[in-house]
Write a structure and sequence with these properties.
Blueprint: H1 5-14, H2 23-35
């Protein structure tokens, strides 16, 4: 899929995903899902 960076940022923003979501935040989210028994 060929998409400009601006278009991609708009797409993820429309889905409620933070543009500056990083690996550390991803790991925290995974841990929370495990704690909740969702993973």
């Amino acid at each position: 899929m060929d998409m400009s960076q601006i278009r991609f940022q708009r797409l993820i923003a429309d889905r409620g995903i933070c543009v500056h979501y990083d690996v550390a935040e991803f790991k925290e989210d995974i841990e929370q899902l495990k704690v909740q028994g969702l993973l």
